[in-house]
Amino acid sequence: MILALGMLPGLAVPAQTTLPPVDVYAPAYSRQHGGYLISGDFKVDPVMSSVVYPAQALVKDDILSVEPVHLNDDEYLVLQECASPDCTSVGIVRVWNAYGAATPALGNENRIRIKHENKYFLWLKRLPSVMFSPCDTCGTHFDNFETYGPPLVLMPTGTLAAYKRAALAAAATTAPVPVKAQDHDGSTFVVTYDGGSKVRIKRMHAVRDAQ
Asked: If 0-12 CB within 10 Å is exposed, 13-18 middle and 19+ buried, where does residue 120 land?
């Protein structure tokens, strides 16, 4: 499976980049446990160095584990999935900030049960900091976002976003945070972003479906 992301305003990337297919069952990065093949076979695109994606498309009933070990206070980790065949329209699956899941999550906020086969990808975005809540119900972190839009775009909505409209407009033109380092810790893929934030990622695939 491939993931193609169109160029967005302000990003120094080609108009379209194709991410290569790689066998998800790489023995060096996989193990079996509790009826699942647990795989850390994820990749960072060599051109779009902010994009992390599974080497093979996630399928129905897979469990994607995304554990932010550390996020800086102004950073938002975003999981998106393609909403159109060419991936020029995407939907938000989950967003995390420094305090955990910023969008609704049932059960474990760091695990996502995949409802259908699709192309999914992770990236990190810096948004304006809010030192003091501007209203009683605003908080200091964004927790409402446009559900659908272009890839690699995170658009907060709601009262807090209205207060920070100008700063958010400026942030919209900045590129996502690039991955500084990547490694495999057994069957877990570990990425470290520019700025020090770290995320651990793995895929749990039912052994009965493994080829």
From this structure: buried
Rounded distance between C-alpha atoms, residue 41 and residue 125, angstroms: 23
- Rounded Cα distance, 7 and 16, in Å: 6
CB atoms within 10 A of CB 81: 20
Amino acid letter at 171? A
**Could you give the residue ranges of the DSSP H alpha helices within the chain?**
159-163, 165-171
Look at residue 6 in the predicted model and tell me its pLDDT.
45
Place of tokens 């942030």: 171
Tens digits of residue pLDDT in 31-83:
887 788 999 999 999 899 999 999 988 999 999 999 999 999 999 999 999 99
